[in-house]
Design a protein that fits this description.
Largest sheet: 8 strands, mixed
Number of strands: 26
Number of helices: 11
Strand content: 15-25%
Number of domains: 2
CATH class of the largest domain: Alpha Beta
Helix content: 10-25%
Structural class: alpha+beta
CATH superfamily of the largest domain: Fumarylacetoacetase-like, C-terminal domain
CATH architecture of the largest domain: Alpha-Beta Complex
Distance between the termini: 52 Å
Low-confidence stretches: none
CATH topology of the largest domain: Fumarylacetoacetate hydrolase, domain 2
């Protein structure tokens, strides 16, 4: 699907919500991401909202007030009278786009006074709510779509053969654990599991205990919108019609547990203890100005097989989106020191596009459903400063990073807070952001 630019992307349009007009606001009127929130009072229910500046527009309230009654948006408005985004996601592209345009018309500076007055009754400050998982995620799949990440990690374990033969032909992924997906701010308990010290003695017995190699993974997630029936596929040219929008993902990883257990069937308990998501889902419509060419493969690399090859995807299947990961230690927090950036990379450097990941996932007839989450895998670039996890950044702990307090990190310590951020910038368009995804490491359980 070719990205469509319309009046909702006009950088000159301002909102009557003043906080949305601040230059570095993640949630300008050109963004309007969807999410779920709950007011902090007894008996409050989860509601669908749209972020605008530092506020949230309650869409159930807007619907009840008759502000979303036009025939073009009625279907989407009805779907927003729910306790998750799944119903809205299932409607597909058309109703979502119509709702976005209606909300844009209500929130713009020159909106009719009646619209402004009515909408203002349905605002709540983001500071006064709890932000929740945006969807009921039935299934979660994590890919391995960065060739830089795959090569860097491969060199740590297979110096002479970092990429396995299938990597350049197939989007590699594994099925993650949907039950341990958590919203931003949820603490992450250090997991325990089987580990074995050293690689030289094949007869050495493992031990059970807390991981000493806890890591973050800076990823981009995307939610399935309209799904496909069991036994059906999704052609590459139609794949983006099945994507609702994107969020930040931190796929926390216990590297020592993972190293012992992953052969021969891949990740298991080293990954399933927690995966953090940002609460706001930025729609594909909002991303239209920031689409770019897909990653240019090196000379000699094979072309994707025909089912994964589309000229439109090669031309505009990439996304010019910056991802950034920061760390705040306990000592930094006590000293009033700001989080330190450990890595910054761009999603345009991914070897496989979102459309290719989704098309491949459904290529065997697997039925994807509204609200299913697909994640990219660690987003890393060619430079060391663009590495998206500590496993890469510290070369498996051999080259620790030094924090402003003088502390060193091979892997995460208890009390460390990890913060992910993401944003798009392009001359002639307003900056849009994904907000943040953060979590703090708690000690392992003692019982």
């Amino acid at each position: 699907m070719k990205p469509i630019l319309d009046e909702t992307h006009d950088s000159k349009v301002q909102s009557w919500v003043e906080s949305a007009n601040v230059a570095d606001s993640d949630f300008s009127i050109q963004n309007l991401p969807f999410g779920m929130f709950r007011r902090r009072n007894a008996g409050s229910e989860a509601k669908v909202g749209v972020a605008i500046g530092d506020h949230i527009l309650d869409l159930a309230g807007m619907r009840s007030a008759g502000m979303l009654a036009d025939e073009s948006v009625r279907l989407a408005a009805n779907a927003c009278a729910s306790n998750s985004l799944n119903s809205l996601m299932a409607l597909g592209t058309g109703p979502r786009r119509a709702l976005r345009r209606r909300l844009h018309s209500i929130l713009r500076q020159d909106a009719p006074a009646s619209d402004r007055q009515s909408a203002s009754r349905h605002f709540v400050a983001q500071a006064d709510v709890d932000l929740m998982l945006p969807a009921v995620v039935g299934d979660y799949t994590d890919f391995y779509a960065s060739i830089f990440h795959a090569t860097n990690v491969g060199k740590l374990f297979r110096p002479d053969n970092p990429l396995l033969p299938n990597y350049k032909y197939i989007p590699i992924g594994y099925h993650g654990r949907a039950s341990s997906l958590v919203s931003t701010g949820t603490p992450v308990r250090r997991p325990s599991g089987q580990t074995r010290d050293g690689d030289s003695d094949p007869n050495k017995a493992p031990k059970l205990g807390p991981t000493t190699a806890l890591d973050y993974e800076m990823e981009l997630g995307f939610f399935v919108g309209a799904g496909n029936l069991l036994g059906e596929t999704i052609p590459i040219g139609e794949a983006e019609e099945h994507i609702f929008g994107i969020c930040l993902v931190n796929d926390w990883s216990a590297r020592d547990i993972q190293a012992w257990e992953y052969q021969p069937l891949g990740p298991f308990l080293g990954k399933s203890f927690s995966t953090s998501l940002s609460p706001w889902v930025v729609t594909m419509e909002a991303l239209a100005p920031f689409r770019t060419a897909a990653f240019v493969r090196a000379e000699g690399d094979p072309a994707p097989l025909p089912y994964l090859l589309s000229q439109s995807d090669r031309k505009l299947g990439g996304l010019d989106l910056w991802l950034e990961v920061s760390l705040l230690s306990v000592r930094m927090r006590e000293a009033g020191i700001d989080p330190v950036v450990l890595g910054r990379s761009n999603f345009r450097d991914m070897y496989w596009t979102m459309a290719q990941m989704l098309t491949h996932h459904a290529s065997n007839g697997c039925n994807l459903r509204a609200g299913d989450l697909l994640a990219s895998g660690t987003v890393s670039g060619a430079e060391k400063t663009a590495r998206g996890c500590l496993l890469e950044l510290t070369s498996r702990g051999k080259d620790p990073v030094t924090l402003p307090t003088g502390e060193q990190r091979k892997f995460l310590k208890d009390g460390d807070e990890v913060i992910l951020r993401g944003f798009c910038e392009r001359e002639g368009f307003r900056r849009i952001g994904l907000g943040s995804c953060h979590g703090t490491v708690l000690p392992a359980c003692t019982t």
